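Sequence in, structure out.
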Amino acid sequence: MGCDVHRIHDVGVAGIHRLFDQLEVLQSSKVIVAVAGMEGALPSVIGGLVSAPIIAVPTSIGYGASFGGIAALLSMLNSCAPGISVVNIDNGFGAGYIAANIVLSHNI
């Protein structure tokens, strides 16, 4: 859809120092798509650090008692961080489409 995208990999809350290493990029972003599994806490953590809208994507990939992404989905839906919306499990396409529409509709 013509948007510039910056991918950041492996910045989960279990290694939060890697997230802080990318803080400048995150804070300069117009919208963020945060994909997380396990406990699904990553969008909430990012939400406390940035002012941009965040689209949270729970992923079915993971280990432990993630129940195919349901645990992450429920955590994301219960987030108290402002500016977070949630798409369904593994719906990265939908999240990217919404993110592009946010950027394009506001000419930012």
